[in-house]
């Protein structure tokens, strides 16, 4: 397993993260446990800011909450001076409760509810990324009734669909997100916003995909948006002030993944903007999620049962599964792992790591080399910081794990483990179904 960030193997032969022995972490907090290397998270945030400083471009970096949203995470985003992208009232609530300044929050989403728009407006967030005409009408009405003028970006779909290792140009993009560029929807949206007294157009947004390892897709999107912005300037006189190019920067889940350094993405994007916006340079905004927090996360599991099918496969089962680790089942994603309690032991066999849930597809890792495992060993799966806790669920009524931040030898619980009581907290038994009151008796 590649050792990311502050991960290392200590004198006891245990995996250590943020100066904390992971075997001790499991003793203290139980398993499964999400561990987040705080220094690594901060380092990634600083890399984006530093990269923009080097290009000399006016910029903002926002963290995409969807990757991993907790109150402690919002505090870190706040301390590091980033903006925050939220896509739901839950993410907004988390940020506000954590004391994150609304003036650095903006709201995304293809189907924001009335309540969400109201919540954002009443909190005085920085802006809304408008996704469609229905929402535009709703926001306009709400803004007018509050006597507010609201900043907006228009989310565009520029007809580029980026995938993990390649990108394809789709022309007319088939997407539920945003205003379509090629059919003229964006220009129509621009005209409507400009004619509104309640909305203030700041610029454009696009997000071409996630886990991207190259810069060509970004460059193509910038070119298209540059051409569009120029046309818009001629037709309406509007000059783009903010160009938000989304997130999507890839990370290293395993040895096949070769992401570019953050500096390279930022440099290519900045150069692209320079070329494609020759008359007026907009402020460049990015909203990375995965690349901020993904490699900083490690999940610790306790190994339980082992099933060997001679000549076929050896299944090693852990005390979690697709409810805390959904990306293998969802995207056939591939991960690396080591035994945290015997981190230097040589690998002796190839096994597949299964979860404990009642699904054949409940697999964490197919075919990885490990030492011979024993019941009670601790398995550390790396690169689980993004889209793991945030996508976790209670399938099979399994409680969600705890999350601990580690730094400088200190571990802080930032999300407590769910309890059995949490699992039934929202359940109600109607009077007629209460024990001893059955109508069939
Ligand atoms: C609009 C938008 N912005 C930002 C992100 C964050 O992407 P990533 O985590 O790949 O950086 C996403 C998710 O793909 C997104 O849909
Ligand atoms: N949840 C996805 C990424 C979706 C990003 C949000 N648009 C993943 O884990 O890779």
From TrEMBL:
EC number: 4.1.1.20
Keyword Methyltransferase found: no
GO biological process: lysine biosynthetic process via diaminopimelate
Residue numbers annotated as active site: 358 (proton donor)
UniProt-annotated binding residues for pyridoxal 5'-phosphate: 248, 287-290, 387
Cofactor(s) the protein needs: pyridoxal 5'-phosphate
Catalytic function, reaction form: meso-2,6-diaminopimelate + H(+) = L-lysine + CO2
Every Orn/DAP/Arg decarboxylase 2 N-terminal domain range: 39-293
Protein name per Swiss-Prot or TrEMBL: Diaminopimelate decarboxylase
């Amino acid at each position: 397993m590649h050792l990311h960030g502050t991960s290392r193997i200590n004198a006891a032969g245990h995996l250590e993260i943020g100066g904390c022995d992971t075997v001790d972490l499991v003793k203290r907090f139980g398993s499964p446990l999400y561990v987040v290397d705080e220094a690594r998270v901060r380092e990634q945030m600083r890399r984006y800011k530093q990269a923009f400083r080097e290009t000399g471009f006016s910029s903002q970096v926002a963290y995409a909450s969807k990757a991993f949203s907790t109150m402690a995470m919002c505090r870190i985003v706040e301390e590091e001076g980033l903006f925050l992208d939220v896509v739901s009232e839950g993410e907004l609530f988390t940020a506000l409760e954590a004391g994150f300044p609304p003036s650095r929050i903006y709201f995304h989403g293809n189907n924001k509810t009335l309540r969400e728009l109201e919540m954002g407006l009443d909190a005085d967030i920085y802006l809304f990324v408008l996704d469609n005409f229905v929402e535009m009408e709703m926001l306009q009405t709400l803004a007018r009734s509050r006597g507010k003028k609201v900043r907006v970006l228009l989310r565009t779909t520029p007809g580029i669909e980026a995938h993990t290792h390649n990108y394809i140009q789709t022309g007319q993009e088939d997407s539920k997100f945003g205003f379509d560029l090629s059919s003229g929807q964006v220009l129509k949206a621009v005209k409507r916003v400009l004619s509104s007294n309640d909305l203030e157009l700041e610029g454009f947004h696009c997000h071409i995909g996630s886990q991207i390892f190259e810069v060509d897709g970004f460059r193509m999107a910038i070119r298209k948006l540059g051409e569009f912005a120029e046309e818009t300037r001629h037709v309406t006189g509007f000059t783009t002030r903010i160009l938000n190019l989304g997130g999507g920067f890839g990370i290293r889940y395993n040895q096949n993944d070769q992401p570019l350094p953050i500096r390279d993405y930022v440099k290519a994007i900045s150069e692209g903007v320079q070329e494609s916006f020759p008359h007026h340079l907009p402020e460049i905004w990015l909203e990375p999620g995965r690349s901020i927090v993904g490699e900083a996360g490690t999940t610790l599991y306790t190994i339980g049962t082992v099933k060997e099918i001679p000549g076929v496969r050896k299944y090693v089962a852990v005390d979690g599964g697709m409810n805390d680790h959904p990306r293998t089942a969802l995207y056939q994603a591939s991960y690396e792992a080591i035994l945290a309690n015997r981190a230097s032991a040589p690998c002796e066999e190839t096994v597949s790591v299964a979860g404990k849930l009642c699904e054949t597809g409940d697999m964490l890792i197919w075919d990885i080399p490990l030492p011979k495992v024993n019941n009670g060993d601790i398995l550390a799966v790396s690169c689980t910081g993004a889209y793991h806790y945030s996508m976790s669920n209670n399938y099979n009524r399994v409680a969600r794990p705890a999350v601990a931040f580690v730094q400088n030898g200190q571990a802080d619980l930032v999300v407590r483990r769910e309890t059995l009581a949490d699992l039934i907290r929202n359940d109600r038994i109607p009077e007629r179904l209460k024990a001893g009151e059955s109508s069939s008796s």
